[in-house]
Specification:
single chain; 90 residues; alpha+beta; three-stranded antiparallel sheet; 3 strands
Length: 90
């Protein structure tokens, strides 16, 4: 199965996955600095396929930090703050 992404008639790239027999569900995900105007799905083997979920967003994807990363940063900042409050030679 191949998903080809277009901006007008210009191909922005494609993703190919071996879907296989039953239960071959796979994720086809892409992002680009250029807008997609269409996506073409094709199966060179000529087999059947189904589409279960389609999502589209015109806003850019902005990753959010994992909760563990935020916790690590907060713990580090708290430790640095406590170190400054501790009396003793510096």
């Amino acid at each position: 199965m191949t998903a080809t992404f277009f901006n007008g008639v210009i191909s922005l790239g494609s993703i190919t996955r071996d879907v296989g027999e039953n239960g071959g569900a796979l994720l086809f995900a892409a992002s680009s600095s250029e807008d997609f105007t269409s996506v073409t799905l094709s199966d060179a083997a000529g087999g059947d396929f189904a589409i279960a979920n389609v999502r589209f967003s015109s806003t850019p994807f902005i990753p959010t930090p994992e909760p563990a990363s935020v916790l690590l940063l907060a713990t580090s900042l708290a430790a640095l703050g406590l170190r400054k409050l501790r009396p003793g030679p510096r």
